[in-house]
Amino acid sequence: MVTMTQAQRKAVLITGAAGGIGTATARQLDNLGFQIFAGVRKFSDGERLQREISAQITPVELDITDEASIIQAVETISEAVGEKGLYGLVNNAGMIVEGPIELVPIKEVRKQFDVNVIGHIAVTQVFLPLLRKAQGHIVNISAPTGQVAFPYLGVLSASKAALEFMTDALRSELRPFKISVSIVEPGAMRTEIFKKSAVSAQQFRQGLPGELLKLYAPALDAVAKASANQYMDSPDVVGTSIAHALISRHPKTRYLAGRGTGMISLLRLLPDRMRDGLLLRALGVATN
Ligand SMILES: NC(=O)c1ccc[n+]([C@@H]2O[C@H](COP(=O)([O-])OP(=O)(O)OC[C@H]3O[C@@H](n4cnc5c(N)ncnc54)[C@H](OP(=O)(O)O)[C@@H]3O)[C@@H](O)[C@H]2O)c1
After folding, report:
1. Per the UniProt record, which residue ranges are transmembrane (predicted)?
2. What is the rounded CA–CA span in Å between residue 61 and residue 44?
3. Which long-range contacts (CB under 8 A, 24 or more apart) does 31-38 make?
4. 71-92 burial by CB neighbour count: b if 16+ within 10 A, else e?
5. Where are the domains of the chain?
6. In ligand 1, which atom is closest to the CA atom of 232?
7. What distance in Å separates the CA atoms of residue 172 and residue 276, rounded to the nearest whole number?
């Protein structure tokens, strides 16, 4: 059997690799023979990935909102890959700030944009010299909320829409360097992201006036019920699209990964008020 040495294996950095889609992608790309740098915030998560997936995975401590952490990561990876450069950057790290816009503290809004938008720009900027060496590939993980604003996920939607526009511009800007840029929009996936956002929303709402919370209580109950009933795919589905974006000679600009994503893109074409009504009805929110 022919095996590739570290020097021959194409290097890919996946941010937010500690769980969900990031871990699923690390597993798939490792199986395909890539050299994986797994961005994790806790080193113990990296050790777990080595145990559970492969000892060949290299964990890299990386908080994408922390400049010093990004610089340390690029130095580590640059030293490891040398002249072959970085073949792939998967900007996957992300989080959800949920709830009606009126109820989200500005601190949380900033956090949402720091992680889902600014962090990806910061990471992309510093890794571009390494990506240029390999004529590499960038894959940004967005969401259907980047195409259609979901009520009660307005802050998340705004962040993913910003990521979509950033990605579209980057694709054109990097075309002369033969660096491909793709965006992947996963449907609902079975990961911890929703649980984390619910816990965080519960915490930040504790500081809000009861009268204000009461105004939104019926809508939030309906949304919680609708969310509990939604179908969730395995995050492996997303890993497959990411692998295609990295391997194909003609990567797509946009991948819809998972059930229902095509329908959501179609909603974009509807007149605004018709789309608003359909979304509220789907969530079971009464409007009169
Ligand atoms: N699950 C879905 O249904 C779905 C649908 C559409 C799009 N997406 C997108 O897919 C991506 C992955 O989400 P997931 O569902 O796999 O969620 P997840 O399991 O919660 O994974 C998110 C990862 O991002 C990491 N992360 C959060 N903040 C970070 C920061 N400041 N710096 C570095 N890493 C950070 C988390 O690290 P810790 O473990 O240390 O917190 C975690 O490893 C996100 O961009 C999300 O918006 C998910």
Report:
1. none
2. 10
3. 32/243, 32/247, 33/4, 33/9, 34/9, 34/10, 34/87, 34/88, 34/246, 35/6, 35/9, 35/10, 35/11, 35/81, 36/12, 37/11, 37/12, 37/13, 37/77, 37/80, 38/14
4. eebbeebbeebeebbbbbbbbb
5. 11-203+233-266
6. 3
7. 32
The partner residues of 14 in beta bridges, in order of sequence, read: 38, 90
Residues linked to residue 91 through DSSP beta bridges, in sequence order: 140
- Per-residue pLDDT reduced to its tens digit, 138-192: 999 999 999 999 999 999 999 999 999 999 999 999 999 999 999 999 999 999 9
Place of tokens 């395909």: 32
Distance 73 CA to ligand 1 centre (A): 18
Mutate to test the pocket of ligand 1, among 191, 196, 230 (most ligand atoms within 8 A of CB): 191
Question: From CA 144, how far away is CA 237, in angstroms rounded?
Answer: 15
Q: Which of 193, 234, 237, 259 to mutate to test the pocket of ligand 1 (most atoms within 8 A of CB)?
A: 193
Task: List, for the chain, all residue ranges whose pLDDT scores fall below the cut of 50.
Answer: 1-2
Return the CATH class of domain 11-203+233-266. Answer: alpha beta
- What distance in angstroms lies between residue 210's CA and the mean position of ligand 1's atoms? 31
Taking the centre of ligand 1 as the mean of its atom positions, its distance from the CA of residue 271, in whole angstroms, is: 32
Q: Whose CA is nearest to atom 23 of ligand 1?
A: 16
For residue 166, how far is its CA from the centre of ligand 1 (angstroms)?
19
